[in-house]
Amino acid sequence: MTLAVTRWTRMAPVLVAVAIITSSHVLNGANKRIVLIAGRPSHAPGEHEFRAGSMLLQKALSGVSGVTVDVITMGWPTKTVDGQAVDDNAALDNADAVLIYADGGGGHPAIQRDRMKVIDALAAKGVGLGFAHYGVEVPAGPAGEAMQRWNAGYYETNFSVNPMWSPAFEKFPNHPVTRGVKPFGNNDEWYFNMRWTGDASLMKRLRH
Predict the structure, then answer these.
(1) Which among 31, 46, 128, 190 counts the fewest CB atoms within 10 Å?
(2) Is 153 within 8 Å of 38 (Cβ atoms)?
(3) pLDDT tens sequence across 64-102
(4) One-letter-per-residue 3-state SS of the chain
């Protein structure tokens, strides 16, 4: 699913749904672990506040029984080996859902090094995957195809559009990830005309 809503308290029930419903490898009723990956600072203060936004979402979820939320900053989990910072992919091993809220484009943290293989492995285990706001944009080609596998679609430069406006979301489809979401409106940058996958079976699962 594509998570592009930036009002974090609205996203809290959505993230719980992602963790509980799409994590097929975890037994019903078991505790769930959600990992929020916040991208590196890139904009002026108050803009694209990845760390602060992730911490607000963590706070919004703190009262949900059976859910643990970990925030990883600077774009990806790391560890120090021989004095050098290297990827610590094992930090994601027991996650039930992973949300990446970060800059997109060629610098998207999910498409660096061998991370697409790491995320493919998470998806194969049934881990719920989410990408927030700018984090749904990657270059066309292998990265775009990977996003279509994980998320069914992505924001493609010069194809998708992102107007600033204040829509009124009053009705929602009958879908597990909309449970608990109330009508709302927000002046923000909304993404449309996403580059969706041509895989009919994947789109069917997304809609149901």
Answers:
(1) 46
(2) no
(3) 999 999 999 999 999 999 999 999 999 999 999 999 999
(4) CCECCCCHHHHHHHHHHHHHHCCCCCCCCCCEEEEEEECCCCCCCCCCCHHHHHHHHHHHHCCCCCEEEEEECCCCCEEEECCEEEECHHHHCCCCEEEEECCCHHHCHHHCCCHHHHHHHHHHCCCEEEEEHHHHECCCCHHHHHHHHHHCEEECCCCCECCEECCEECCCCCCHHHCCCCCEECCEECCECCEECCCHHHHHHHHC
